[in-house]
């Protein structure tokens, strides 16, 4: 499923009408009927439904919804919250059709009037303003939105909560706080941003007949769901052996932080890596080995419990390398990162402390031809870009794309919505996972899952997207069955990973 900006959605709409020849009135009819079907699933015929219709396509959708619900016997009224001259084009056609079918359309410009109307409703349908809104809502709509937020008991927004920007990078807005949003066509970009997502409430997508030839070429972002995971995750041959599924190397850990690399190695093995070697400080190995009996070990020299840089590593022996977890920020660790960038011909995944050192090595990133994957959380991404965390969170898609394209790397930007970006700007988003992941060690587990996935027979973008899906889905399944978001620990994810494979894949 694609994720679109306002401009991309408009291009698809215009393409359907101007290139394919579909009538805009038909598209509006399809959208309104599809949303009405969702509403009918939510409410009974005795529920009082009040639809607030503004100008533009959203208002037109509101009139179609109203006509459909009234024809099906629902207690529905449509209130127009903009002057008559704002209702034009296809929206005017559907208003006139609504009236000719026996509907009445009172015009209310007062927030007090609207407040009384929605106060007496069981469900309010917000069809006031759509994705074409520029800037903040103006009066009287701003006051009307305030009245809806104060008085309405349950709000379903059409395509987007009125007043909310569809795109990233905007923080100056005042909008409806919906309980539920029904997207037409595709989810809009701002549903995946931390500061705008809460306004949408629960959401789902309905189709309104856009030709697939337009949608396939019209969006640059894709949601990665269980369906994509099932399609792309390779099944194992009955004749496979440990060498068939990759030999991975994990570099990191220290006497102070042995658990980080232990979780990475364990996660890689749980996710299907054939062989995994843990390269860590000698003093950390007893702790790591007690948790990862199936791994092999490369003893690295150490200073004060941290890996030193004196011992060379033969990267040619491995199919993929992950490094940085628990490594520390001393100079010797940076030397290891530099050595890996210069010497490892296989894919290199850099996480945690490794990202801190990567900041000082931009020229090596640009020179490297083998794939590099970076896995920052927002603070680390902001550090790499020399911007503030709030600035990053305003436009995470653009920031991840900027870094990926400039340095030729893959970016896995972690968060409530994990954004995966290729060096060519292709982006996927996963939304599995929950608040229980907000604990130390969760990222170490993800790094291990990524290491294993990178060594399977799939593209790098598929590997990264599937890794993010599995990591989050493991947390979701654990919380749904045996844990809460309070007690879930990173090490618990190691037991959630098998649940994902058993549930989502036929022959796991």
UniProtKB/TrEMBL annotation:
What is stated as this protein's family in its record?
In the C-terminal section; belongs to the NnrD/CARKD family. Belongs to the NnrE/AIBP family.
Cross-referenced Gene3D superfamilies: 3.40.1190.20, YjeF N-terminal domain
Identification of the protein by name: Bifunctional NAD(P)H-hydrate repair enzyme
Instruction: Please name the source species.
Output: Lentibacillus juripiscarius
Q: Where is the YjeF C-terminal domain?
A: 225-504
EC assignment: the record states: 4.2.1.136, 5.1.99.6
Q: List cofactor names only.
A: Mg(2+); K(+)
The note on cofactor binding and number reads: Binds 1 potassium ion per subunit.
Query: Tell me, how does this one assemble?
Result: Homotetramer.
Name the PROSITE patterns on file. Answer: YJEF_C_2, YJEF_C_3, YJEF_N
Keywords (alphabetical) are: ATP-binding, Isomerase, Lyase, Metal-binding, Multifunctional enzyme, NAD, NADP, Nucleotide-binding, Potassium
Checking InterPro entries in the record gives:
Carbohydrate_kinase_pred_CS (IPR017953), CARKD (IPR000631), Nnr (IPR030677), Ribokinase-like (IPR029056), YjeF_N_dom (IPR004443), YjeF_N_dom_sf (IPR036652)
Provide the residue positions that the database annotates as binding AMP.
Answer: 414-418, 443
What is this enzyme's catalytic activity, as reactions? Answer: (6R)-NADPHX = (6S)-NADPHX; (6S)-NADHX + ADP = AMP + phosphate + NADH + H(+); (6R)-NADHX = (6S)-NADHX; (6S)-NADPHX + ADP = AMP + phosphate + NADPH + H(+)
On the tree of life, the source organism's domain of life is Bacteria
Residues given in the record as K(+) binding sites: 58, 126, 162
Q: NCBIfam families under this entry? A: yjeF_cterm (TIGR00196), yjeF_nterm (TIGR00197)
Q: Where does (6S)-NADPHX bind?
A: 57-61, 130-136, 159, 326, 377, 444
Q: What does this protein do?
A: Bifunctional enzyme that catalyzes the epimerization of the S- and R-forms of NAD(P)HX and the dehydration of the S-form of NAD(P)HX at the expense of ADP, which is converted to AMP. This allows the repair of both epimers of NAD(P)HX, a damaged form of NAD(P)H that is a result of enzymatic or heat-dependent hydration.
YjeF N-terminal domain: from which residue to which, for each copy? 9-216
């Amino acid at each position: 499923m694609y994720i679109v900006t306002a401009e991309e959605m408009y291009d698809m709409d215009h393409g359907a009408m101007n290139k394919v020849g579909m009538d805009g009135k038909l598209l509006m009819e399809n959208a309104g009927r599809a949303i009405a079907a969702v509403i009918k699933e939510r409410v009974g015929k005795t529920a009082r439904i009040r639809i607030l219709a503004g100008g533009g396509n959203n208002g037109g959708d509101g009139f179609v919804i109203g006509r459909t619900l009234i024809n099906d016997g629902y207690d529905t009224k449509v209130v127009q919250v903009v002057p008559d001259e704002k209702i034009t084009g296809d929206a005017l056609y559907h208003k006139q059709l609504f009236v000719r079918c026996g509907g009445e359309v009172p015009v209310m410009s007062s927030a007090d009037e609207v407040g009384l109307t929605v106060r007496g409703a069981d469900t309010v349908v917000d069809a006031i303003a759509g994705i074409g809104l520029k800037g903040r809502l103006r009066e009287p709509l701003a006051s009307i939105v305030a009245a809806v937020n104060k008085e309405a008991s349950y709000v379903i927004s059409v395509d987007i909560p009125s007043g909310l920007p569809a795109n990233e990078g905007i923080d100056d807005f005042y909008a409806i706080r919906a309980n539920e949003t029904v997207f037409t066509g595709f989810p809009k970009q701002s549903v995946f941003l931390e500061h705008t997502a809460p306004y949408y409430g629960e959401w789902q997508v309905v189709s309104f007949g856009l030709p697939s030839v337009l949608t396939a070429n019209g969006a640059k972002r894709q949601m990665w769901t269980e369906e994509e995971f099932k399609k792309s995750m390779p099944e194992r041959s009955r004749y496979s052996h440990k060498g068939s599924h990759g030999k991975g190397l994990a570099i990191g850990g220290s006497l102070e932080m042995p658990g980080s690399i232990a979780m990475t190695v364990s996660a890689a093995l749980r996710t299907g890596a054939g062989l995994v070697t843990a390269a860590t400080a000698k003093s950390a190995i007893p702790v790591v080995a007690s948790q990862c009996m199936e791994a092999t070990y490369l003893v690295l020299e150490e200073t004060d419990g941290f890996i030193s840089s004196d011992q060379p590593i033969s990267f040619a022996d491995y199919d993929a390398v992950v490094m940085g977890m628990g490594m520390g920020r001393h100079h010797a660790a940076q030397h290891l990162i530099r050595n890996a960038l210069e010497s490892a011909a296989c894919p290199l995944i850099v996480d945690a402390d490794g990202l801190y050192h990567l900041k000082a090595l931009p020229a090596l990133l640009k020179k490297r031809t083998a794939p590099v994957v970076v896995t920052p959380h927002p603070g680390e991404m902001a550090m790499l870009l020399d911007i503030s965390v709030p600035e990053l969170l305003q436009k995470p898609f653009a920031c991840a794309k900027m870094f990926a394209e400039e340095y030729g790397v893959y970016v896995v930007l972690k968060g409530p919505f994990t954004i995966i970006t290729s060096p060519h700007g292709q982006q996927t988003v996963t939304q599995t996972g929950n608040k229980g992941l907000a604990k130390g060690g969760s990222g170490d587990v993800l790094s291990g899952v990524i290491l294993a996935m990178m060594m399977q027979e799939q593209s790098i973008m598929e590997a990264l997207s599937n890794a993010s899906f599995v990591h989050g889905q493991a947390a979701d399944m654990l919380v749904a069955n045996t844990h809460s978001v309070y007690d879930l620990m990173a090490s618990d994810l190691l037991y959630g990973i098998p649940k994902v494979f058993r549930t989502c894949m036929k022959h796991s």
